[in-house]
Write the structure tokens for this entry.
Amino acid sequence: MDSLKKSERLDKILANSGFGPRKEARRLIHSGSVEVNGSIVREPEFHVDAESDKILVEGTLLSAEVNAYFMMNKAFGAVCSSRSDRRKTVFDYLSPQDNRKYLGGTLSTVGRLDADTEGLLIITSDGALIHRITSPRHEVPKTYLVYLRDSVSSHLRAAYEKKLSAGIHIAAEGKAAEADCKSAYIEWKDKNQYHTKEGEIPSEVCCLTVTEGKFHEVRRMFKALGNEVVYLRRIRIQRLNLDENLAEGQYRPLSKEELGLLDAEKKSND
């Protein structure tokens, strides 16, 4: 995605590449353990290009990773923050070698999922990507698998579709003000193909695609329709689908092809 600016301090590059804090990086440099393009460098402030310069640390070639991109199947109960006194955070599921600062910045989630919402979560250090996906201006589609409390007749389905397509009004909740939602797309599913965690068939199942990220938006939309969401799982962002092979809490790096599926300029509800 976005490349790093042409040069950075050598101690910063080492620190952001897993060699501990700046103090440890400076110790390595002062000791003569770092080479740049075949020459020993002892000045921590020496500027190098992490993408083109050959950097060796104690004889090992440094492969500087500018940004990291991970797909996670967020577990129920985990919160999308770096710290929490009461709940496990999504960052607690990352290994120490992945959960660190990168040359492009610190890891952040691309938007948030509520603690009781599961599914597709992107974690990256690429601030530009985060902005492109979460900015309301880009209207990036996000699709959720929804189990509803009440079954919906064919007549009511038509009413749901019409109201959601027109942009339904949602009531205020907590600190979030009432609002008019942008158009949303609903697709009804065969509930007999789905099961709750208790092994029961849900009352009603659908997929809802929205292009915003309002507080509890999907739940508030169905509440405005007179129903209630009992299970919520994000399964798609833009054209990127959740890897169903990932168990709850598991994650993996995104491939270059998958990063292309997150291109905000190519919208699709396919």
